[in-house]
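README: folding subset

This subset contains proteins for which both the sequence and a predicted structure token string are available. Records are stored as plain text. Below is the entry for Type I restriction modification DNA specificity domain protein (450 residues), shown exactly as it appears on disk.
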Amino acid sequence: MSFPKYPAYKESGLKWVGEIPTGWNLSQLSFVFENISSGTTPSANNDEYYRGNIPWVTTGELREAEIFSTEKNISSGALNVFSALKIYPPGTLLVAMYGATTGRLGWLGVDATTNQACCALAYPKNVHFKFIFYSLLNAKEALLLLSSGGGQPNINQEKIRSFRIPIPPLPEQQAIASFLDRECGKIDALIAEQERLIALLAEKRQAVISHAVTKGLNPNAPMKDSGIPWIGMVPEGWEMMRVKNILLTIEQGWSPQCENYPRSSDSEWAVLKVGCVNTGIFDPSENKVLPETLDGNENLQVRAGDVLVSRANTRDLVGRSAVAERNYSRLMICDKIFRLRTRPEFCLPEYLSFFLQSSAGRHVIEIAASGASQSMVNIGQGTILEMLFPVPPVEIQRHILKNLNCNDEAESIGNANQFINLAYERRAALISAAVTGKIDVRNQNKANAA
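--- output ---
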């Protein structure tokens, strides 16, 4: 669908915005919100502070959505003791200021307070909070360029207060917000449908993989007891081995502070993000460019046959693996990824990766995963190295891999993931065009109603 443009434009003076409609202005956020502040963290030594019913938002709960409840609540007593704690009303925008979540957004659906890492934009003045939400969502990369700090980016309240965005008249803000709510809702529904399909296909595919790497493809093969309860019987001629005995090396990479965008060509140095292995298929586009002030490490470049395993992620994603099919110049592994190189006379890299994705491999990984919260858990090298798994002769491994790689579910999952990526790109492009005035959607709500 194409949308009309505004009749006339002017230069905004902001490189990331470009031209804006002549009736729009630029404004600092401090001019359009009465209160921009943050909260604090009550002492964990006093349980009474956390026995109330007042929602207390942390940055881990900012997921670009409305917030109705929180993992922890605080008491009125905590409010009385800690003057930095304030109750913000529904419609307050929240921006994460510190660490890996910097730039994440949310808005309150109930009265709530926050910790010190959330910047609250409360009591809007002649602006629609949902329009500002979409504007900040579009401006995330520009906001992160203002960040400072060592290993993780940080922004502060002053930088948020002085941040400038395009502001149309209030009726246009309301029209744009309504348009984006509706159109993004449609896109999100399509994405959710594809994600449900992927979950069903992945469950079926894991069953196929699990059977193939523990039972083989010959239903008439004589079997023997593996000695491992969660593996059970395996074909005779397969040898139970620890992963460490079929490896040449295991190592992890480097995670310097990088730019917040992927590289545009192989001539740039970049560091992989842990999400590059989430689907079981290596995704080299999941990377961040290394700053020009830092030198790349040639020894950490991804090479053909590297088995890449996430060592830190959510419980569902930690231990996910994928294999690089070719060399990737100047693309380095990060410190949240293990790189395994197998001994080819014992085990093919793709076969090891499939076992790690099987129910037997996931059983070991999920039991071993540890961490302070479910949002981020870790596994050590020992979890992988000491894992026992059935190893068939290499020729049988090749036969199994050929069967698994031709599997219909794998192709369908790939197609669904491609659809999702394109949908997210469409969503981001639509938001950007609407909140910077590149398209005129003022009459779209009327047209939709008609």
